[in-house]
Amino acid sequence: MSIDSPTAGMPSADAALTLTRRAALAFTAYQAGDRDRMSELVDLLTPVLWHTARGQRLDTATAEDVVQTAWIRLVEHADAIQDPQAVLGWLVTTVRREAWRLLRQSGRAVPTDEVPEESAGAPVAPSGDGSTIDPALVAVLHEGQQQLWHHVTSLPQRCQALLRVIAFVDRPDYAALSEALGMPVGSIGPTRGRCLAKLRAALLADPTWSAS
Amino acid sequence: MTPDESTLASEPLDTLDEQVLLTVRNMHARLDPVPSGLTDRIKFELTLAALHAEIAELQRVSLAGVRADDTAYAPTQSVTFTSSRLSLMVTLTAPTDDPDQARQGTITVDGWVTVAGTVVELRVGNLSLTVTADEHGRFVIEDVPHGPGRFVLHPPGEGERPIITPTVEL
């Protein structure tokens, strides 16, 4: 068994332009009056925001609303954002707060950033959890992905949410993103941090896992 | 956390971490992808928010059939939009046998808007075509590519909010 090629679709860590940097360029141009660049920004950052919302255990319809709301807020507050490098963090924070507000309103799950890390060792899927993935979908994953799925869902909920978002950005952006997600400093980047260490330890302890 | 995990946690990220995160990314992208059309819906909402626009309603679509003349068979389609302040009717014609090769594969939009002097903007993809309706409210937009498009109408007068139509297939 092998894991996927590290080159496919993954922006390399030493790429000249990280996601944050590319977003900053588009946003700066937008602020300067090139309104069409907002469209580029939407294409660039929506996947990260989608996985932020879904990682907060929102169902798909609510996640769509929350992501859309974050974008509308950005356009409304575009002039107030001084540092274009901060635009990704700003959007992620907005998605997380909006998700938290809706979850609290619906009286449902406790937001992930208030769950003590060590309290949840087992797969977390409380009833009514909107983020539950259809088991039939998991079945279509190839063997390696199914194994990874098993290990990822065994992580504490907040680690699952963190790694899910981090996986969609570039290495230099990890620390800033983890902060935007409300994680303590050092959760990930420049060191591995606890969440990724847990996953790595689990994978290394799995005799059927191979990183070749 | 085991001592082993503590050691792992304090080490710098390496290429194996990058590979693990890539597989995590691929797994989530496969299991729970961004819903199709979400980015387009967001862009549309942002356009409305930026314009403070009013949305017109799609009132009627009719196929005017096939008009035959000496030179061309030209299928035409009429679409009517209404809003609180004006109505817009457009007829879409696809010249199938235009002698001008450059015109092949494009359409002509003949329109009529109830407020004379309205500036009519047609957005198709990244293209924006703008004309001003004459004193009778008539306008023509030529060489329009096929694809989903919508009209943004700017009625004359200071401070008039624009009106935007739903997307129609051109």
Low-confidence stretches of chain B: 65-73
Q: Structural class, from secondary structure content of chain A?
A: mainly alpha
Shape of chain A: globular
Structural class of chain B: alpha+beta
Oligomer: heterodimer
CATH 2nd-level architecture of the largest domain in chain B? Sandwich
Q: Provide the residue-averaged pLDDT of chain A.
A: 82
Give the total of domains of chain B. 2
Question: What does this entry show, briefly?
Answer:
Chain A has one domain. Chain A contains nine helices and no strands. Chain A has helices at residues 19-31, 37-55, 60-76, 87-105, 135-139, 143-153, 157-166, 174-180, 193-204.
Observed structural traits:
heterodimer; A: 212 residues; mainly alpha; globular; B: 170 residues; Immunoglobulin-like; 2 domains; six-stranded mixed β-sheet; five-stranded antiparallel β-sheet; 11 strands
